[in-house]
Specification:
Blueprint lengths: L13 H10 L1 E5 L2 E7 L8 E7 L7 H18 L1 H4 L6 E7 L7 H26 L1
Parallel strand pairs: 3-4
Antiparallel strand pairs: 1-2, 2-4
Helix pairs in contact: 2-4
Length: about 130
Amino acid sequence: MRYTLGKKERLKSKKLIENLYKNGKSIKVFPFRMVYFQTNHTSDFPAQVGVSVAKRNFKKAPDRNRLKRLMRETYRLQKEIVYENLEIPYVFMISYIGKEEKSYQELYSKMNNLLHLFIEKVKHTENETL
């Protein structure tokens, strides 16, 4: 597996994002919240991801950009957790809901917890539908 996060793996479609927030389910592992939705998308990858940081919590753009960069990096290094366990395509948005910036190591471990929780929820949902 290549540890890249290319354009096709990022969630950019306004329609998909709108649909995601309207119909998606949510899970939280502080300081992250993930909204996910099972849908077909144009990418060949099993998941498309977007990241966001609220302007309300971080007024300065460089602070928001740094957090988004750290979030993308922690996801990029651990995306195999998601890719190896998904059979059907998903889109999800990961939002930073904390009020202050955490260290990279803390974000990395929290992202790991969030991705494992996501896989548990998806597997549980798939088992219920069978």
